Amino acid sequence: MSQDVIEAERKERWKERPGGRGTARAGRGGRAWRPAPSVLVAALLLLLAGSVVVSVSIGQVDVPVRDSARVLLHELTGIGGPGDPMFMDVVWNIRLPRVLLAAVVGAGLALCGTVMQATLQNPLADPFVLGISSGASLGAAFAILTGFGAAGAVGAVAGLGVPFWAFIGALAAAALVLGVGGAGSRTSPVKLILAGTAVNALCGAASSALVYFADSAEGVRSVTFWSMGSLASAEWATLPAVSTVVLIATAFFLFRSRVLNALLMGDEAAVTLGIDPGPHRRIHLVLAAVVTGMLVATCGIIGFVGLIVPHVVRSAIGPDHRGLLPVAVLSGALFLIWADVVARVVVPNAELPIGIVTSVLGAPLFLHMLIRKEYGFGDK
Q: What contacts 224, CB < 8 A, 6 or more positions away?
């Protein structure tokens, strides 16, 4: 084969590779166009800004979008008047912190889901695959039902209470999984997933035992509500720490897109490309565990975001993480903002746990993708 033919073939593959400019993918009836990731990122940023303005207007007390925009413009830039004092309090002090927390949590869960699916080479991996959810539940149940999360108790270390113990439980479970997964021989994705399954079952049993023997009906109700996720505790003071962790993790993984692409193709392919999967896998999983533990400790367990969002985005733009990561992060933020809106308004004068909403919205969409085969993972 001549050099010209080889070069032509290489250019053709580059044009059709996932995430490339002017990409295309095979579909029913021919080739389907894929939008460039940069275009999607710009569109999602605009949509995210608009969603923030609209979502702070929706709730048990409706606020006109114009008044919400006026409040936000005045508070952020000092331009114009503050408007109605009641609207300002509702929009700025109550709803905006909650909407921003939803965006940060959704972005973090989507980021961790994308990273873990590539790192573990498993399309069913999500942020809770390392036992993080069950470990956090065990820590929270322990704090709530034993009183260690109460003010003035040991659990109120650094004033964190229940979130502190949930974070400790999440990290302890993840550490146990990583320790078991790396014991005896080389760490492999299969061992890590099996270890995560075992730790999930163990921590889940311990949490159930605490609830079963608890004598506080209010405590049991608190544990149940926390385990289904909620953003009701959002306030300005909770945003800086969570936002910083998610931003740092996002920047870190964006610079490691090449490594994630190599890991997604399998260990043999990664080694061929000069990448040792073991150290990179441990770094990715530890950082994903820290991010997920922080998110779970802040708002409880919110499922399906880290599982479904990466698949939806991957089906749209392909598996190249240079485009997949930023689009998935923004899509996760959008998804959780609107899921929280549904949680706030679907039940009159009450709030539905957001974990229920994400599952109700995510499960049918995931099943639809499986039936229509509108998903992509690795080279499949």
A: 211
Give pLDDT tens digits for 46-105.
999 999 999 999 988 888 888 888 888 888 887 776 667 778 888 998 999 999 999 999
Token pair 């994903």 is at which residue? Answer: 288
List the structure tokens of 266.
Answer: 């399998």
Q: Which residues neighbour 358 within 8 Å (Cβ) at sequence distance 6 or greater?
A: 229, 302, 303, 304, 305, 335, 336, 339
- Residue 31's DSSP bridge partners are 26
The 3-class secondary structure across 103-145, one letter per residue, is HHHHHHHHHHHHHHHHHCCCCCCCCCCCCHHHHHHHHHHHHHH
Distances (CA, A) of 82 to 67, 70, 74: 9, 7, 6
Contact predicate 143/165, CB 8 Å: yes
Q: Which residues of the chain have pLDDT under 70?
A: 1-33, 81-83, 148-160, 183-186, 373-380
With 0-12 CB in 10 A as exposed, 13-18 as middle and 19+ as buried, what is 365? middle
Kindly state the tokens that stand for 302.
């919110």
- pLDDT tens-digit readout, 108-153: 999 999 999 999 888 888 888 888 888 888 888 888 888 765 544 4
Quick one: which of 155, 134, 106, 119 has its CA closest to 306? 106
Q: Could you tell me the CA-to-CA distances from 337 to 97, 125, 236, 344 in Å, in that order?
A: 11, 23, 17, 11
Q: How far apart are CA 19 and CA 317, in angstroms?
A: 6
Looking from the CA of 332 toward its CB, the CA atoms found within 13 Å total 32
Give kind and range of the element (H or E) at residue 26.
strand 24-27
Q: What is the DSSP letter of 183?
A: S
Cβ 287 vs Cβ 114: under 8 Å:
no
